[in-house]
Amino acid sequence: MYSQGLTDAKGQEEPADLLAEFQAKIDREEKIEPRDWMPMAYRKTLIRQMSQHAHSEIVGQLPEGNWITRAPTLNRKMILLAKVQDEAGHGLYIYSATETLGVSRDQLTDELLTGKAKYSSIFNYPTPSWADMGAIGWLVDGAAIMNQVPLCRCSYGPYARSMVRICKEESFHQRQGYEIMTVLARGTQAQKDMAQRALNRTWWPSLMMFGPSDKNSTHSAQSMKWKIKRFSNDELRQKFIDATVPQAEHLGLTIPDPDLKWNEETGHYDHGEINWDELFQVIKGNGPCNKERLQARIDAHENGEWVREAAQTYQQKQNNQHNEAA
Ligand code: BYC
């Protein structure tokens, strides 16, 4: 979608002194702000990652929205509704932060709806039981926190600042998911089985949220040099596994990986091979729910046309009144 090279918008080579000063600023841990000079490739990388992140928050409402009307109690409904609304808010903060890079919200929306832009693979899986709400909160929001806490120190100021509040909310989401799993794991055998099946479904796709292995990650090296990313995909995935295995043990549930075992020497859990072909298939649009998710966003956009028109007409009236009064 966005090409990457150290040339500016007109294809001219960028001045070496500006590039050197830019990198020095990053190395001094100073934030880059919207009006500062930045290499075109840095801008493009941010637009790519931030817009994909915002799209993920928006599409991420769908698997959980599926359960709002069916949550088992009024309290559970209210909590889930609040969580899904938080995700909408996260999408909006990150879209706004992305707009500071000179791209319009309409353009970003268009790229999502035409299938040009990616969003996280995890949201292309189905959520057939209530326990999936627990597994998503615990694992998906848990993985999101692991990935996003370092983004609070991202070199681009607006992205880093938007992450601070998002991480606080994600932390609440992770706890609500773990609490759902705790209740089910301590319930009847049927409830425990339901929780185990949700863990079986969600475990491997959660590990894929961190992206391809480092050797196949096209952007990591440059993004780490620019301090957009602070840790590699594999490092964050390992941190997540190490933090999550004891939580599963506490629940009395089994992580669906026969090769998972503590390695005394490395001080980390060794894990089984991830099915990378599955990740790339889902990214390409061939996951179990890709078509359904995209269609839901297209429908929402088309059904919201009248709201956008009404808002524009209202704004026009306000402008006219203001001009008449002046
Ligand atoms: N799914 O070079 P790499 C949430 C793509 S929202 C799809 O390693 P990078 C939540 C990647 O884009 C969670 N695509 O890339 C919401 C690249 O393709 P392009 C979303 C993936 O950017 C609601 C190519 O593969 N979080 O938590 O250095 C409810 C090569 O990858 C995936 C964020 O977006 C994937 N899993 O690293 C609950 C966090 N992985 O662009 C929860 C911000 C890789 O060249 N993003 N790709 O065509 C990031 O931290 C980074 O973008 C990633 C990937 C770690 C995801």
UniProtKB/TrEMBL annotation:
One GO MF term attached to the UniProt entry: phenylacetyl-CoA 1,2-epoxidase activity
Highest taxon of the lineage: Bacteria
GO biological process: phenylacetate catabolic process
Gene3D superfamilies documented for this protein: 1.20.1260.10
One cellular component (GO) term of this entry: cytosol
UniProt-listed InterPro entries: Aromatic_CoA_ox/epox, Ferritin-like, Ferritin-like_SF, PaaA, PaaA_PaaC
Protein name, per record: Ring-1,2-phenylacetyl-CoA epoxidase subunit PaaA
Species name: Marinicella litoralis
